[in-house]
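Entry for the shared binder. Reason: the reviewer on the internal report wants the predicted structure included alongside the sequence.
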Amino acid sequence: MKGDRIAIQQLNKNLGLLLVTINQYFLHARILKNWGLEELGEHFYKSSIVEMKQADAIIERVLFLEGLPNLQELGKLLIGETPEEIIKCDLAKEEEKHQALIHAIAICEQQEDYVSRQLLEQQKDVNEERMDWLQNQLDLIASMGLPNYLQMGVLETE
């Protein structure tokens, strides 16, 4: 099925953001594990897997639309040097993805590519949950301090 060129461009833009986020979450997971924060690291590792599955879904959709998935245009990773910076960097990347998803959903709607729109809406829902979780972690750090937060362990709300 030949897909709309503009919708495919939007899918590829979101694919690129997912690929960056996969690498960012993966590296943060390994950094946290290296620091002995295995539970928090495991949370970010699982997030990288979720991102990978979302990227896979976009790749399959682009191929179905007879487009070429672009895995070459990668943006900049935001790497934190403390647990709090890691969370802030990941929140910033999720906010960037959120804006791109909103734009891509609108484009797919205009181009009447409702299947791609639905795929992106599902990813936006996951993105919003992750942004909420990351913001909650920053709020906890602000209210209880980093040492207490790190001793508390990860609160799974995703």
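Summary line for the report: The mean pLDDT is 94.
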